[in-house]
Write a structure and sequence with these properties.
Elements lengths: L1 E3 H8 L3 H9 L5 E4 L2 E5 H9 L10 H11 L9 H13 L2 H7 L5 E5 L6 H4 L6 E2 L5 H4 L9 E6 H10 L11 E6 L2 H8 L7 H9 L4 H20 L1
Parallel strand pairs: 6-7
Antiparallel strand pairs: 1-3, 2-3, 4-7, 5-6
Length: 231
């Protein structure tokens, strides 16, 4: 179900312009109709309930550094002091706070693709499967449910939209495309294989509007954080 940007602004306690920006960058699923922005009510409800416990969201490079560290990988694009500070933050955070802190890691679009191509699109060159598409490999207790999620760079994103005639105006999206904006990070992040690391999968799942998927992501993140604290 959708509500207007005015209703969303009232619910969230922010201005309509801010709501429109959130819809435009994919943070809230929405579209413009008759000159008025409409956004998904479930997304608004989740954002209302999820308030950051500390400070502003992390930058793209810091967000990816945190997720790499939590996955047992080395973020070579960060300095030693940055990694040290991140390790301390990760030992003090919760799954929900982590997902909020790293929410600017990529540009998010909720798209519609022909169901027959759901598996194919995540295996394209330059694409890394994530979220529900990588939940099983990460050990999350959730199935894909005919949905797919992926990460790519800006060039690959344009190719996918053309090749598969993707649309972002559907009321029943089945593909989440997350575009990594920082060119300096693309090679390091997407060269790791065809599947994103476990911590990335966890926060992808937490951001879902489906309670079961969110729960699975929260459990996975909690497990990773617990192991990180013991290390």
């Amino acid at each position: 179900m959708e509500i207007t940007s005015r209703e969303a602004a009232h619910t969230l306690g922010i201005g309509q312009r801010r709501v429109r920006r959130l819809a435009a960058d994919g943070t809230l699923r929405g579209h413009r109709f008759g000159g008025v922005w409409h956004v998904d009510r479930d997304d608004v409800t989740r954002r209302q309930a999820a308030t950051p416990t500390r400070g502003r969201p992390w930058s793209e490079r810091i967000s990816w550094g945190a997720l790499w560290l939590l996955s047992g990988l080395t973020p070579d694009w960060l300095g030693d002091s940055e990694k040290s500070r991140l390790r301390k933050r990760l030992r003090e955070t919760t799954p929900e706070s982590l997902a909020l802190a790293v929410r600017r890691r990529a540009h998010v679009e909720h798209c519609r693709i022909l169901p027959a191509y759901l598996e194919t699109v995540t295996k394209e060159q330059g694409v890394a499967a994530a979220g529900l598409s990588a939940a099983e490999s990460a050990g999350a207790d959730i199935l894909s449910m005919d949905l797919a999620e992926l990460y790519c760079d800006r060039r690959t994103r344009e190719q996918l939209f053309t090749r598969y005639a993707l649309t972002t105006t559907s009321s029943s999206p089945n593909l989440t495309v997350r575009t990594i904006e920082d060119p300096a990070l693309v090679q390091a992040l997407l060269a790791s294989g065809t599947t994103m690391p476990d911590a990335v999968v966890a926060v992808d799942l937490i951001e879902s509007t489906d309670p079961r998927t969110t729960h699975a992501g929260t459990e996975l993140a909690a497990h990773l954080l617990a192991d990180f604290r013991r290390a």
